[in-house]
Amino acid sequence: MPLVRIDLSKATPPAVVQAVSDTVYEAMTSIANVPVNDKFQIVTRHDTDELVYPADGYLGISYSASIVFIQITWNTGRSIDVKKAFYAAVANGISSKTGLRKEDIWISLVEVARENWSFGNGEMQYAPAD
């Protein structure tokens, strides 16, 4: 049920883009209990002036032009511990596979009710029971 949006620089090599995509999916299935094959992702590459972040950093974290914005819309209900483990797995996995700095892996979760999805056919596949 997740929809993942990955926004990064146009300068990012295709192999790095693939590693980011795969790492997010792996963490979703292994940590956040997302079903296998539930891989819906939108990857958008941007010019450097289209990725805006605080030049002076935020919350003690400094960013670079290699910043990767990851926004995931998924069902509500995961615990704080699962979310913390998920964030760590994504940042550590991307960093180890690509050499990108963990500081540049920015993640936002958007939680929605199960009935807010249609996976096709104009149907509500996760409709509440009557």
What's the helix and strand layout?
Blueprint: E1 3-9, H1 14-30, E2 41-46, E3 68-75, H2 80-98, E4 105-112
Parallel strand pairs: 1-2, 3-4
Antiparallel strand pairs: 1-3
Overview of this protein structure:
- This protein is an alpha/beta fold and 130 residues long.
- The protein has one domain (3-116): Macrophage Migration Inhibitory Factor (2-Layer Sandwich).
- The protein is built from 2 helices and 4 strands.
- Helix 1 packs antiparallel against helix 2.
- The two termini are 21 Å apart.
- The relative contact order is 0.21.
SS element count, helices: 2
Number of domains: 1
Q: What's the Cα radius of gyration?
A: 16 Å
Assign the CATH architecture.
2-Layer Sandwich
Query: What would the CATH topology be?
Result: Macrophage Migration Inhibitory Factor
Largest sheet: 4 strands, mixed
Mean pLDDT: 95
General form? globular
Low-confidence stretches are none
Helix fraction bin: 25-40%
> For the record, what is the CATH homologous superfamily label?
Macrophage Migration Inhibitory Factor
Gap between N and C termini: 21 Å
**CATH top-level class:** Alpha Beta
Strand content: 15-25%
Strand order of the largest sheet: 2-1-3-4
The arrangement of helices and strands along the chain is EHEEHE
